[in-house]
Amino acid sequence: MDIEFLRTFLEVTRVKHFGKAADNLYLTQSAVSARIRLLEEFIGEPVFIRQRNNLQLTPIGKKLFYYAENIVLLWKRAKQEIAFADDDKNVISVGCTAGLWEIYLNKWLSLLVTSDLPISLDTRILSKDSLIRNIQDFTLDLGFTFEATTEENLIIEKVGSINILLVTSHHEYSTDKMLSEDFYYVDWGTSITTELANYWGEKLKPKLTCDQSSIALSLIIEHGGTSYLPEPTISKLVNDKKLFVVKDAPILERKLYAVFCSDSKKNELIKNSLALFDQVKGAI
Questions:
Q1: Burial class of residue 18, CB neighbours in 10 A (0-12, 13-18, 19+)
Q2: Integer CA distances (angstroms), 191 to 4, 244, 249, 279, in order
Q3: pTM of the entire structure?
Q4: All structural domains of the chain
Q5: Nearest to 24 by CA among 38, 8, 40
Q6: N or C: the chain end with fewer CB closer than 10 Å?
Q7: What confidence tens digit (pLDDT) does each residue in 225-270 have?
Q8: What are the φ and ψ backbone dihedral angles of 44, each rounded to 5 degrees?
């Protein structure tokens, strides 16, 4: 079976539309339809429920998705490893949950690519569940997450922490008014959600809830507002007095964890890469 059938299946699943998938893959819609039809003939079952404006995976399609994702990733990794077979570098695939690159990891990445370590990088953004699963399946070498995990065969190392501050453009407002008008709530995970609920109670009345701090920050800059945002992101804006730290609000801490497989053949290189976080902490 052609691996491009699986790539096409993954793209159709992602956008839930044959025409959009065709545009993204630079194919005709008929070519996309033909690939999906051939894939279904190979499997012997339909992978999509086709309804007008509502394309959904069948139970077989849902099972296939997990394997298709891993097969495509493994093939990509195989090609990378082959390409570097005559080189002295190792390919390290690095993943993180949404927003972490710009909040913390960009400085580490900059140090890593300019270091003398024999390394070539493949980076991607994943959900926490996909990140852990990909590490366990050896389709990902190293992951970063705010949530510690207790999965077997994984090494968990704390590599840093980030302060989350309540900031506002409405410095003339009372705190109660800040939290009820133009308050953009960033979901920083269960522990912080619980902490905020215990501290503020019903005073928190979000106008918007999102999972990326960049969305809340862009709205505040454009329209004004209040949100809990990471200190590295807003420090310059606070210094320039474009945003103001709310004095009576608690400062929250998010710990950043590196996750990798205990029996990975690249552990020495991974640990040498993580050692660069000592320099990152001094730069933030």
A1: buried
A2: 41, 25, 17, 28
A3: 0.68
A4: 3-75 (1.10.10.10), 87-284 (3.40.190.290)
A5: 8
A6: N
A7: 999 999 989 999 999 999 999 988 999 998 899 999 988 888 899 9
A8: 90, 10
